[in-house]
Amino acid sequence: MPNVTRADAVAAVRNPLAFIAERWTPTPRTVQRAALAALVMSVVIVVTGGAVRLTGSGLGCPTWPKCTADSLTATSAMGFHGAIEFGNRMLTYVLCAAVGWAIIAARAEKPSRRGLTRLGWAQFWVVMSNAVLGGIVVLVGLNPYTVAAHFVATSALIAIATVMWQRTREGDGTPRPLVGKSVQQLVWFLVAASVLLILVGTVVTGAGPHAGDSSEVERMPLDWETVSKVHAVLAWIVVSLTFALWFVLKAVDAPKGPLGRTRDLFLILLAQGVIGYVQYFTDLPEILVGLHMLGSALVWIAVLRVLLALRERPQASADVPGPSSEPTLTRA
Q1: Three-state SS for 243?
Q2: What is the percent of the chain with per-residue pLDDT over 90, rounded to a whole number?
């Protein structure tokens, strides 16, 4: 084990990230895997949060930050619901660890990439603020508006994690568009429709039958079936925009990157649509609702990957001295 001097210890305490970065250089693949781990955990937290709601365990731990007024953890007397809710809270620490690993790997990469580090810290602060919001959700008895905000914040986390994962696999050069302006505008319409789809989806949840707990929980004062139909219409708009984008990309002989990601999005949307209609006509079985929540996260990631595929970012090239402007002497 190398000797650690007093100066090393002081430096490690003052700025641990800088201390690590001076002594460790991760490979690009390590940085990519760290960013991917943070993205995967942001999706896992969506699924486990859905499990909390679908099992009626939303108030399994009736207070926050402790599980009960007298215990930090769930007790055996709290049964299944307490274990589910407390387990989901513990997974937040795993998510924090994954985000922390992404921050450390990005900070230590050589040459330094400040943009990557900022994306990692952005994830960290979203996780922290969403943890507080999750506590508020419990303290206000699963108010549907706070539950919706909780899910929207997680979607924002997924968006940042997706961008960071993409950025680890490209350079820091000036972005170069791979498609024309009209195609870019079509994709931005697709992104906007997807955001609206997610927002209306939270309203479907807030007005629907799965309140998150077996007790009387406030619901949004809206007709659930009407909101579900609006959600379905928006889903078809997203599907139509995706198909139109695929057709346009084929027509203009676009690069394989945007075309392949558009195809992937289309397939995920079809699977998500099948799950959505089956769950609607079978009275919302919990397992299908959970799969639909997973599908929602995957659709959002796929939409963002289409957007990010519209440009390429090469490695930033070092300045190469041009030919000298001084006159040269030639022999007569």
Answers
A1: helix
A2: 59
